[in-house]
Design goal:
Blueprint: H1 19-42, H2 53-86, H3 104-132, E1 151-158, E2 161-166, E3 172-174, E4 177-180, E5 184-191, E6 196-200, E7 205-209, E8 215-220, E9 225-231, E10 243-249, H4 251-266, H5 269-272
Parallel strand pairs: 1-5, 4-10
Antiparallel strand pairs: 1-2, 2-3, 5-8, 6-7, 6-9, 9-10
Helix pairs in contact: 1-2, 2-3
The protein binds copper (II) ion.
Length: 296
């Protein structure tokens, strides 16, 4: 008795549809719509914002990278959706699909496409890094140094607060970070004890604070405003409370603030200026406090 071939129902239909063309057209249409929308509306929402030149550049870089990967994500979405819609099983019969063989054109396209994207991003990232410094700590001997004079501030981390010292103001120190507006600033980040990370969020600055290391980072402030400073490295019990507000102020306000701080600091300056062995902490690139003082 003749029986029906169980595979007949699931045999691939005599299909002349050009699936590849359909996917490519859908991909192009979706990418053409999505990429400008992402670049215009999503890019500017990406942190850290525009409080410094480096922050603005980071937003620009992130917008670029997001725009470059949008077509890649569109391809994945279109391919996935099209595959689900067009190639799903049409019967309950469990059968092998048609044999697949390599497609040299797709392989070459894939390798060239991904290589171009990765090399472009590497070149783009390097160029942007060397432009003005990128807001990251570059160690004691920075490669990307912005030209012109820079206002120096030292950031001293310890468990669990930041202290700021101003060498141009006689090594004065404060527990508040004030920076003049529209100024090139050179931050020297170090630590007294554990490893911390100085993260001035809206300025686009993030630099490791290591004991015994002078980690240099550059930032150019813009107009007056308030920014957040956080420790971004788990540094002990009270790490979550290691935050403060920083201020960018115009030069008149900065002078007034500095004069007030210097008056306060003058009272303890003679004690601070004593040698470390004598309990002092004169201005220095790095500090090595006695172990019994390391606990903060
Ligand atoms: Cu910390």
């Amino acid at each position: 008795m003749a029986t029906a071939d169980p595979n007949a129902a699931a045999a691939p239909p005599n299909d002349s549809t050009n699936h590849g063309l359909r996917v490519v057209v859908a991909w192009f249409v979706l990418s053409a719509i999505a990429t400008p929308l992402v670049a215009i509306f999503v890019g500017r929402l990406i942190p850290p914002g525009n409080a410094s030149v480096q922050g603005t550049e980071q937003v620009f870089d992130n917008t670029w990278m997001l725009s470059v990967i949008t077509p890649v994500i569109c391809l994945l979405v279109v391919f996935f959706a099209y595959g689900l819609g067009s190639f799903r099983a049409t019967s309950d019969a469990v059968v092998d699909g048609p044999p697949l063989r390599n497609d040299a054109r797709i392989q070459v396209l894939w390798m060239v496409g991904t290589s171009v994207i990765v090399l472009f991003l590497a070149g783009f990232g390097t160029y942007e890094l060397l432009q003005n410094g990128a807001g990251g700590g570059q160690g004691p001997n920075p490669i990307a140094v912005p030209s012109g004079s820079k206002f120096q501030v030292q950031v001293v981390a310890q468990q669990w607060q930041f202290t700021y010292r101003y060498p141009s103001l006689g090594g004065m120190e404060s527990n508040q970070l004030y920076l003049p507006a529209d100024t090139d600033v050179e931050l020297h980040v170090t630590s007294l004890d554990a490893i911390h990370s100085f993260w001035a969020y809206e300025l686009g600055v993030k630099a490791d604070a290591n004991p015994g290391v002078d980690n240099v980072v550059f930032v150019k402030t813009k107009g007056p405003g308030v920014f957040h400073v956080r420790c971004a490295e788990l540094c002990g019990l009270w790490h979550p409370y290691m935050f403060n507000n920083g201020h960018v102020v115009d030069s008149g306000q900065f002078q007034a603030w500095a004069a007030k701080q210097q008056k306060l600091y003058a009272a303890i300056k003679p004690f601070m200026d004593k040698p470390e062995s004598d309990g002092g902490a004169p201005y220095s690139k790095t500090y090595f406090p006695a172990p019994d003082r390391r606990a903060g």
